[in-house]
Design brief:
mainly alpha; 2 strands; disordered N terminus; MetI-like_sf; transmembrane; transmembrane helix; cell membrane
Length: 296
């Protein structure tokens, strides 16, 4: 009797499903030390190349001013790098110099923000609507070639203050690259993706949000970077003519006073501010383009 019960218990245990062992999650891939070392070497090489290039340019500049080079380009009145560095160190210790930089940065921030919001909106609408494109494009093609300097007299008459006129001129400079690059990005959206999403029942807004905008982001990012550079050019044109503060006014005032080293100081500060602001735009837009790496 006991043997029969034991046999029945064994049979029941054999027929019961056994718990399956859960598969351990795959460990996240770790970057190998060799890959990290290669990336570090590439970055160090890029930084070293930048330093070498700037050092070579400063050396040529020093030699040209030291021998008063006059071969089609005259360097006799160009200050040496040391004189420019000395003037720059003196200026950064004054409050008015930082006021000039702060005023220019504020103007750039206001005008560039407005141009970004309006430029992306207009570009997206033009890219998805033939009627909007046919209506807006003639204005863009007519106004876009007009240089910033030509806008200054009319801007002074249109706007109540010099500050608002300078911001308006800077806004126009940044607007058109952003609009055109956004339009180009929307036009380059693969139509196959749009039809595939529509076949799944997606609405027009869903197609616009999940297909058109991500596909246009690379061109939008390029337009934002170009627009930042053009906005600095337009800002300086406005500050030179009608400004009382700003790094452009500082540079023009140095020319009026025949202060050659301050002219170069203003030019170099403009260059570094423009480079830094463009790099900031690229850094801000970089997280939006992570999908490009995943698709490669």
């Amino acid at each position: 009797m006991a043997t029969a019960l034991q046999t029945k218990e064994v049979a029941n245990q054999a027929t019961q499903p056994r718990p399956t062992a859960k598969a351990a999650p795959a460990p996240a891939p770790k970057a190998s030390p060799i890959s990290a070392l290669r990336i570090g070497r590439k970055q160090a090489g890029s930084i070293g190349m930048v330093f070498l290039s700037l050092s070579a340019g400063a050396l040529l500049w020093h030699l040209a001013t030291a021998i008063n080079l006059d071969f089609y380009i005259n360097f006799s009145n160009v200050p040496s790098p040391w004189r420019v560095l000395t003037a720059f160190v003196g200026h950064i210790q004054t409050e008015i110099f930082w006021t000039h930089i702060g005023v220019s940065m504020r103007r750039i921030l206001i005008s560039y923000t407005l141009a970004t919001v309006l430029g992306i909106f207009i570009g997206l609408i033009m890219g998805r609507s033939r009627i909007a494109r046919a209506f807006i494009m003639p204005y863009i093609e007519v106004v876009r070639p007009i240089p910033a300097v030509a806008w200054i007299p009319l801007a002074i008459l249109m706007w109540p203050t010099e500050e608002s006129s300078i911001i308006y001129i800077t806004f126009l400079g940044a607007l058109f690259p952003i609009v055109l690059n956004t339009l180009h990005g929307v036009e380059q959206t693969p139509e196959v993706l749009v039809r595939a999403v529509q076949s799944l029942g997606a609405s027009r807004w869903a197609v616009f949000r999940h297909v058109v905008i991500p596909a246009a982001l690379p061109s939008i990012a390029a337009g934002l970077a170009i627009g930042m550079g053009v906005s600095w050019f337009s800002l300086l044109a406005g500050e030179i003519i009608s400004g009382q503060y700003g790094i452009g006014y500082f540079t023009w005032d140095a020319y009026s006073l025949i202060n050659y080293q301050d002219i170069v100081v203003g030019m170099l500060v403009i260059g570094f501010l423009g480079t830094g602001s463009t790099a900031a735009v690229k850094m801000i837009t970089k997280p939006m383009l992570k999908w490009q790496k995943r698709t490669r």
